[in-house]
Amino acid sequence: MKLSVGNTMPDFAVSMICKGDISMKELVGGTPTAVYFLRYAGCTLCQLDMITIHEEYSKLLEAGAKALVVIQSPAEKLKDADFAYDIICDPSMALYKELEIAAAPSVEVLIGGSTMEKIERSKARGFVHGEYEGEELQLPAVFIVDKDLKVIYSRYAKDLSDIPDMDEVCNVIRQNA
């Protein structure tokens, strides 16, 4: 089911790196939450997104919210990761399938928009591509849910650069507080 504003995010049972199996409702814990669906840990653009969310996490906290990141990498790849947010590992891509987060039909679509500029930012930060652990053509998606898992923002990306920046995420949260 594609998520739209006003829908309720399913209360998935998810597997956490350090917390074991837990429900989305428990993870959200009554706090507005930005849920980022990215590709996998070896992807340099995902590395850039993950570190950017981490570096700007204080903005989310100031807005009274938090973040979750869902990636297609297995948990053992991230067991030593130290991010300000929780990471949900979904190597079977079950959550992506349930929420109909599609892969791009081609590389050309995947790298559309301002993806080439994002690639340059990733290179400038020194990110190096790791293992291919997921769907190479996977498009990202971002949902913001309120304390009760009601979707207050939904974006199914058109390309790898099509995710909201932290200021946009925080504005949505503040407008829906």
TrEMBL record:
InterPro entries: AhpC/TSA (IPR000866), PXL2A/B/C (IPR032801), Thioredoxin-like_sf (IPR036249), Thioredoxin_domain (IPR013766)
Molecular function GO terms recorded: antioxidant activity; oxidoreductase activity
Record-linked Gene3D superfamilies: Glutaredoxin
PROSITE patterns membership: THIOREDOXIN_2
Matching CDD domains: PRX_like2
Pfam family, one: AhpC-TSA
Thioredoxin domain boundaries: 3-177
Protein name (database record): Peroxiredoxin
Higher taxonomy: Bacteria, Bacillati, Bacillota, Clostridia, Eubacteriales
